[in-house]
Every structure is written in structure tokens, then in C-alpha cells.
Amino acid sequence: MTSTAAQATATPGTTAKTTTTTTKSTTTRTRTRTSAAASMTRKNNALPKARTLIEALPWLTRHHGKTIVVKFGGNAMVNEELKAAFAQDIVFLHHAGLRPVVVHGGGPQISAELDRYGLVSEFKAGLRVTTDEAMDVVRMVLAGQVQRELVGLLNLHGPLAVGITGEDAHTISATRHRPLIDGEPVDIGRVGEVTRIDTGAVLALLEDGRIPVVSSIARAEDDGHVYNVNADTAAAALAAALGAETLMVLTDVEGLYEDWPNSDEVISRLTASELETLLPDLSSGMVPKMEGCLHAVRNGVRTARVIDGRVPHSILLEIFTDDGVGTMVVPDEPSVSEGTS
């Protein structure tokens, strides 16, 4: 009787243990199947990233150790997201083994500050007319505001960036620039034309593993006057003096248009001679940029690129992808006679 009761009592317990074991087994199998599915999803999500990295490999190899001069300007200077993306791009170039040099203007910030002081912003031949009073504002904004902020953004990623102006160590020397309008020279004030580049300070920073950030202010060699130099022009002159691999100019357009405003088709690649024929028909704002590109490729820079600074990470897309995102200017191919002489 006792034995039978004990057996009867044991039966429910055995059933409970069996049920618990079965439930655990089912849960384990379900978890295993779920983990396998999640793993496959992660792999599928990761594959495109791997393909992007592999696509960048030949470009990383080609540009490793090369100097890249980047002109920072346009809309990217006033949009917080674009400024942060620009800083990330430059730091990425640095850690990828390139030697980036940043040259910046400050058009939007200068205009805003001139308005605050009640000074008129006027442009002729695509260049800002710079009076003595305006020059004080330009100097303050470029060196004290724009450069400080940009250096700070870059240094969020480590102690990398160092700011200098073209005045420092006579990095950029200039004389008064008088552009031609309708064939006549016009005085536009304290606007400088670059006469000489001293690369010593910039090279020293590069050799020390730093990212130079250069404000486009220059000093005259003769009378010590300070000049406002167009940042596109300054970047091109510095790129040529450094023997840079590439000059990159950020703009507020997609690139150089084939037939603006009749067409929004962007020219992806053209030679120096092809660009030269287009210069007379370009809008005034594009002239300094494209003249800078032309100067660069005719003075030893391998490529000059105009890219849309409104696109986040456009620098990386242009350098490290097969398609690129802007307009690339290249030197003219040597003629047969030049190649065999």
C-alpha cells in the first residue's frame, strides 16, 4: 500500500520534470534558430560595408602618403551637420595615411559680421571689395572665429589640427590685386594676388603628424600690408607649392555644369585646355574656383576637383569611390612630339 502510494506520488513529479526538460529543449532550439537568423541578418547588413571598404582599397593605396589640399567653404561652413562631417572626413584622410591640408575662407561669416558693423558687402569679378575697415573684420573673422571653430571640430578626434594664417611665417605673400573688368583694371581694395608661398611652416606641421588649417590672409613683402586673398586662389597656390597630389574645392553646386543654366548636367572630367576654353563663359562665382584648379594642374598638382560641399562626406565619396561626386580637372596629355623628344 505504501509502495503503491509512493509510486502514485512519484508519477506527477516525473511528468513535471519531463515537461520542464521538454520546454527547455524547445526554448533552446528556438533560441538557436533565432540566433542563426539574426546572425544571417547581421552578415547581410555587413556585406555592403565590406564591399565599400574593398572599393576604397586601390584609392587608399594610390593616395597613401600623398598631400591633399582641401579648400573649405560655402554652405558646409554654416551647417552644423556638414561641418561635423567635414571634420570627420579630414581626420579619416589623416588616419588613412594621407596628409591633408585645409585652407578656408569665411564668406558667409564675413558678410554677417560686416552687416553687424554696418559695412557694405560688395563683389566685383567674383571677389569681395575689401576696404581698410572691412579688412579688420575679415582678419578677425577668419583667424579668430572660423579657424578656431574648425580647429576645435578637428581636435574633437584627437590633438591633430593646428591653425595658422597666411601671415604666419610669411606662408602666403601677396600684392594688391586689380582684376580686369571690361578690359580695364579695377581697384577692389585690400584684396591680394599671391606672389609667393613659403611652405616651411606647413611642411613642419605635416612632418609632425598634424593637420594644418590655413586662413586665407596674406602679407605684402614690401610694405607689410595685410591682404584678403580669395581662399580658392590661396588653396591652389599652396597645393602647387607643396606638390600636392590633389586640390579639392568644396562648393555649393554639384560641380562644373556642361551648359548652365540650359542644362544641369555636370562635367565629370576635363583637361586643363578644355577648362581654359570654358572660363570666359563661367559665372563670376565659379571663376576663381576654376582658375585655381587650372593653376594647380598646370603647376604640378595631379588632379583638381570641384565637389558639392552640401553632400555629407563628399570628400570621401570623391576620393575613395569609383564614381566620384564632382568635376575633376587633369593636366593636358603630352603630345606625341613632347613624349618622344
TrEMBL record:
Single GO cellular component term: cytoplasm
Family annotation (CDD domains): AAK_NAGK-C
Subcellular location(s) per record: Cytoplasm
Ranges in coiled-coil conformation: none
Chain positions of site Transition state stabilizer: 71, 289
Sample GO molecular function, one term: acetylglutamate kinase activity
Residues that, per the record, bind substrate: 106-107, 128, 228
Keyword annotations of the record: Amino-acid biosynthesis, Arginine biosynthesis, ATP-binding, Cytoplasm, Kinase, Nucleotide-binding, Transferase
Keyword Kinase: yes
Domain named Aspartate/glutamate/uridylate kinase: residues: 66-308
Main localization of the protein described in the UniProt heading: cytoplasm
Top EC group: transferase
GO terms, biological process: L-arginine biosynthetic process via ornithine
Region spans: Disordered: 1-43
Pfam families the record matches: AA_kinase
Known catalytic reactions: N-acetyl-L-glutamate + ATP = N-acetyl-L-glutamyl 5-phosphate + ADP
EC number assigned by the record: 2.7.2.8
TM stretches of this protein: none
UniProt keyword Ligase, yes or no: no
Pathway listed: Amino-acid biosynthesis; L-arginine biosynthesis; N(2)-acetyl-L-ornithine from L-glutamate: step 2/4
Family affiliation: Belongs to the acetylglutamate kinase family. ArgB subfamily.
Chain's role: Catalyzes the ATP-dependent phosphorylation of N-acetyl-L-glutamate.
PANTHER family membership: N-ACETYLGLUTAMATE SYNTHASE, N-ACETYLGLUTAMATE SYNTHASE, MITOCHONDRIAL
Protein name per the record: Acetylglutamate kinase
Organism listed in the record: Streptomyces clavuligerus
Source organism phylogeny: Bacteria, Bacillati, Actinomycetota, Actinomycetes, Kitasatosporales
Gene: argB
